[in-house]
Amino acid sequence: MPTLTVVLGVAVAYVVVRERGLLSGLVDYISTVPIAVPGIVFATGIVWLYLRSPLYGTLTLIVVALVGVYIPHAARFASAGLIQIDKSLEEAGRMSGAGKLRVIRTITFPLLRPSLMSAWILLYVFAMREVDEAVIIAGPNSRPLAVLAFSFIEAGAIRNSAVIGLLLTLVMLTGVLIARMVFRVRLDSSSL
Question: Which residues belong to any copy of the ABC transmembrane type-1 domain (predicted)?
Fold first, then answer.
């Protein structure tokens, strides 16, 4: 989920920051709407939208909802990174004969990587602890750990909930450490 959200956030940020005009304003407005809508209302809308589809009650629907909720965060991180990268670097790449996608891949993306790492880690932690949307959307066979902990608390099984909470913390810590190691290796190797 964090990877997909960051990729979509970069696309939104690129359109908003680099492509000025009516389209960029519209994309910026649409991408920030989930911030204004409470999570429970957003999840209820997702359930209503997909109620009669085969996605209802599946893990895929939870991913769709969480991507929708967290795109504004990813787009803001990517926008902050893109604003710091001067447009003349991309123009120099284009003048040297590189296509737009190659310029993005070889110039913009490596410079944007630290912002994307921060966004990925933040979204990973947010997704792991998310309860509001997941409680409403989760089905009997698609309950994330945070929803399982909530179910145990609701049933009065505090010890079971504490075990799930500890497991959730370990999973988050492991994911963050792995992401930091992967990005640090890539950042170190790209600076050589």
Answer: 1-179
Ranges under pLDDT 50 in the chain:
192
In b/e form, how buried is each residue of 137-151, taking b as 16+ CB within 10 angstroms? bbeeebbbbbbbbbb
In single-letter form, the type of residue at position 114 comes to P
Instruction: Give the residue from 92, 82, 135 showing the smallest Cα distance to 113.
Output: 82
DSSP label at 143?
-
- HSE-CB of 156 using CA atoms within 13 angstroms: 0
- For residues 85 and 89, give the distance between their C-alpha atoms in angstroms, rounded to a whole number: 8
C-alpha–C-alpha distance, residues 129 and 140, integer Å:
19
The CA distance from 187 to 192, in Å, is: 9
pLDDT of residue 4: 92
pTM greater than 0.85: no
CA 73/CA 34 separation, integer angstroms: 10
152-190 residue pLDDT tens: 888 888 888 888 888 888 988 888 888 878 777 555 555
pLDDT given for residue 192 in this prediction: 45
pLDDT value of position 51 = 79
Residue type for position 117: M
* Residue 21 φ/ψ region, left for φ over 0, alpha for ψ in the -120 to 50 degree band, beta for the rest: left
